[in-house]
Amino acid sequence: MSSHLMDSPLLHDHGWNAEWQETFIEHATPGAVPARVLRAERGLCDVVTADGQARIAVPPGGHDSAASPVTGDWITFLPGRACDDARFLTVLPRSTVLSRASAGGSSREQILAVNVDTVVVAVSLAGTLRHTRTERLLSLAWASGATPVMALTKADEHSAPESAVVEVGDLAPGVDVIATSSRTGAGVEELRAAIHGTVALIGPSGAGKSSLGNRLLGSELLATGEVRAVDGKGRHTTAWRELLPVPGGGVLLDTPGLRSVGVTRSEVAVGETFSDLEELAEQCRFSDCAHDREPGCAVRSAISAGWITERRLDSYRKLRREADRLAARTDARLRAERLAQFKSMAHQQRAASKERQA
Length: 358
Prior knowledge:
Elements: H1 2-6, H2 9-13, H3 18-27, E1 33-41, E2 44-49, E3 52-57, E4 74-78, E5 87-91, E6 97-101, E7 109-114, E8 118-124, H4 131-144, E9 147-153, H5 161-169, E10 176-179, H6 188-194, E11 198-202, H7 209-217, E12 242-245, E13 251-254, H8 267-273, H9 275-281, H10 298-304, H11 310-357
Parallel strand pairs: 8-9, 8-11, 9-10, 11-13
Antiparallel strand pairs: 1-2, 1-4, 2-3, 4-5, 6-7, 12-13
Helix pairs in contact: 4-8, 4-11, 8-9
Keywords: Cytoplasm, GTP-binding, Hydrolase, Metal-binding, Nucleotide-binding, Ribosome biogenesis, RNA-binding, rRNA-binding, Zinc
Subcellular location: Cytoplasm
Protein name: Small ribosomal subunit biogenesis GTPase RsgA
């Protein structure tokens, strides 16, 4: 079984490797086979196996997002004589999780992609650069555990794409920033060299993610749409998440455009996004410096010298507050869930005790 899996071109083309082989062996039950989820819908998922594609029914996972497969997951299942006979078993432990805060202020997170190695943040140069949104997208990418890469799309519509690379590079310390054009092909090979493994494309609607994805795929496999001239916004041409093998190696996952970008509770992600600010803060005279009017504040000195902007400091403060609030709500929700589980177990124990005494 193991050699058959390792030699499977289908699995290999969709990201299967020795590490996933070991994970599968560790968690598999007798008769189980692995598959990667290509596309997940409510109650069903399309998967690729060593023998081809199949559709598997998935029982509801409730509030446990780790138990419900999403696009990019590796799962185990028991094959049947027909697709409808296949029985879903479990989701293998995820290596990375790309998610954002759910709309409405909920402490739960919306999973965008899993088992991703590279997150390409697409930012369009055909209009005004919105740095605060870019910082939010970068924070999501860092929080996933994958490697972020910045793709400045539609470079052919910008008068000086090289200067835009420098400008955005100041917002993304430690991240490759590449100007690309899906129309001319400029920068695509440079981007291809910067990405690896399973690649997720994220960004707002109209950023040109699908067009860039088609360039990487070498074929028009992803639907694309025009941007409205009246406001520069695009339509959601990607309605769901789907995995597609990239010629020459790798797997591409295009995601629907993000209208809102709620940060997760990861302090590390915010710190990575604003590593320049946090390094400056370590040089402040006081360890609890608020970077306001304190004497010896290295951050204020950098702002006065023009090295960083007041806008970037404000963005850092806002994202940090959001991450802290979400962490507090999440902790409160987990405490409430644990308390409910404890009460349920105690109730069951009391009922069982009464039955024994009867």
